[in-house]
Amino acid sequence: MLDKERKQAQFPQLEMSHLLYGDKEGFDNFIERQTFFDNHPLFKVDQNFFNKSRQDQILINAQKTIEAAKNLDLANKKYYTPNVLCPQGNFISTVHFAMVIPAFQVLASDDQIKRWMPSLKDFNAFGCYAQSELGHGSDVQNILTVATLDKTTSEFIIHTPNVEATKFWPGELGLYCEFALVFAQLIVDGKNHGVHPFWVRIRDKDTHRPMEGVQLGDIGPKMGYAVKDNGYLSFDHFRAPLDSLLNRYIKVSSDGKVERQGNPKVGYASMLYMRNILCDQYTKFAGKALTIAVRYSLYRRQFKDDNKQEILILDYQCQQQKLFPLLAEFYACIFGSIKIKEIVNENFNRITQYNDFSTLNLTHSILSAAKSNYTYFVANCAEWCRLSCGGHGFAHYSGLPTIFFEMSPNIVLEGENTILNLQLARYLLKQLQNTVSKPESVPSYFQFLSSDTVKIQDVTTIESLAALLGCNCSILTKYAASKFMAHSDLQDSWDTKSGIALAKAASTFIPYFNMICFIDTIQNKAKDTKEILTVLAQVYGITMLLNNSQGLLLKNQISSEQIRLLQDTREQLYPIIRRNALCLVEAQGLSENTLQSLIAPKDGNVYENMYNYASQDNSLNKQKVHEGITYIKKMKEVNAKL
Ligand SMILES: Cc1cc2nc3c(=O)[nH]c(=O)nc-3n(C[C@H](O)[C@H](O)[C@H](O)COP(=O)(O)OP(=O)(O)OC[C@H]3O[C@@H](n4cnc5c(N)ncnc54)[C@H](O)[C@@H]3O)c2cc1C
């Protein structure tokens, strides 16, 4: 049955695969690494993984990490997608490779990099990123851990002054890492020089016990995310050598001289790396959820038509309405993320090679907004895919609950999404001002702010949709600016009077940005996929406008007839997507082992899969009479006495 679906697709799947992974090389790299996971017995999906205790899950993934490290170059960025997408649950080393090493690359001096990088890469110096505290996560500037220079011994004394200052949440801290990159207020001669990173050993090399003056452990179970040992860490006047301070941009001499060099905003540069990974790699989990949901919807039939034939659930318009806008948004986010990766890499090269910070603000702002938008999208997409699979979506064997659990923390970590949106709002206001005072300085991505009117013939073309999305954001930015400026105390206005308007305006930027990246891909990269991509881009643009066109409505830039036309057009496009849906998700090239789902095989019988698992493999059934029955028998006695 699925082969019939595959044959009716109207585009070359391989061309689409190359577009989704950036190019042929990107796709080939993915398939090469996926093949390793598919063929290795340790990485074969085990549906009983979720019947195991957290302790066992952690041990299994530690074993997997070592096996992966033996066979694969885990620090190699080009393989990051399969590394996060293929194995069941996280590797033990994701924070180390995705946060600690990049932070070192940006913040450590050449000498420090020379000294530490080999052991960081081969795992001999396994570290966590210890920034957040119990009392402060988003507000990094006000964390309470202190690192005070002791001139008599040329050491820093790292100290946790109270419970609130305990480091809390760092991944890989709870059980495993030997080192921590500790962010603390630097105090020299009684003067606070702000928050800086210190690289310190926190567990003994031989015994793995905490070092003297260090208390640490795992923080306990969370919503999913079971194999990650998020931890707590506190210091009691812990002594660290002078060169524990990563000192590319700040130097402290043993006699207390503090010298700063470069841009103080450099701290952002390492965060950019992880946020980029969240946009670039983790967005692909939405594609995994969509593959499961679309395939399952092509197996599942409910109710009969007039010819007494049972109807495929993907043929219901309401099911299409659940999945197709998400599919279009997935493509939009992927093309947006490819552009963002280019922007981030260019900025990273400018900083590290030429000490040039001129594109840092632009990069930081776009990336903040994208991280916020994409991580909301992925969690939302996983949840809707789950719902679209009815009861079976609720079971771990569908592969869907775990995607939601593993992806939803991304909304909060590495910059909480509302706060990131507000950071873009600040940048939008600045560029809005520049459109009047310094128009030549406004980056091309923000030139839409110079106009709050739009003239179009046909609202349904991709170019018109991009213009409308830009105009919507521009009007909402002006509205937010006027709310913000209406009060004399600007800080109070920002915090308590205009936050909603500012966050709203910012949340409409990425739909515009994604749309122009989508159009760029269609016009400059696609060949025989242009037509179907144009349909997806239309569905994406229309959906974004139907979700939020408040700005356009405020200034009468869109009429109720046009909104109706958008709605009708989207519905008319669904049959085209329906015909191509299977190949649109399969263009990602995800194997069954990667999908980890019994309800979405490439071919086969989903009901037999589920039945065989329940009746033969489910480890809870192995004990023919479960030990819990002794308690149930007691319950009968209790009830008898009542
Ligand atoms: C799974 C997971 C892994 C993590 N890993 C690490 C790690 O490896 N290392 C590490 O250092 N940390 C880590 N963290 C911590 C994480 O970075 C913080 O939790 C995150 O930055 C959010 O900060 P917070 O908890 O202080 O949230 P808060 O800032 O307290 O947010 C709570 C609410 O207040 C709102 N709010 C706060 N300030 C404002 C404002 N100015 N304007 C409007 N609204 C506001 C937020 O929008 C949110 O709704 C991890 C967290 C999780 C969940």
TrEMBL record:
Location of the Acyl-CoA oxidase C-terminal domain: 473-635
Keyword Lipid metabolism found: yes
Keywords: FAD, Fatty acid metabolism, Flavoprotein, Lipid metabolism, Oxidoreductase, Peroxisome
Pfam families named in the record: ACOX, ACOX_C_alpha1, Acyl-CoA_ox_N
Principal location listed in the UniProt entry: other
MF terms (GO), sorted A to Z: acyl-CoA oxidase activity; FAD binding; fatty acid binding
Compartmental location: Peroxisome
Cofactor: FAD
Domain Acyl-coenzyme A oxidase N-terminal: 15-125
Top-rank lineage group of the source organism: Eukaryota
BP GO annotations: fatty acid beta-oxidation using acyl-CoA oxidase; lipid homeostasis
Assigned GO CC terms: peroxisome
Domain Acyl-CoA oxidase C-alpha1: from-to ranges: 268-429
The reaction(s) this protein catalyses: a 2,3-saturated acyl-CoA + O2 = a (2E)-enoyl-CoA + H2O2
Keyword hit for tRNA processing: no
Family stated for the protein in its record: Belongs to the acyl-CoA oxidase family.
Name of the protein in its database record: Acyl-coenzyme A oxidase
Organism in which the protein naturally occurs: Paramecium octaurelia
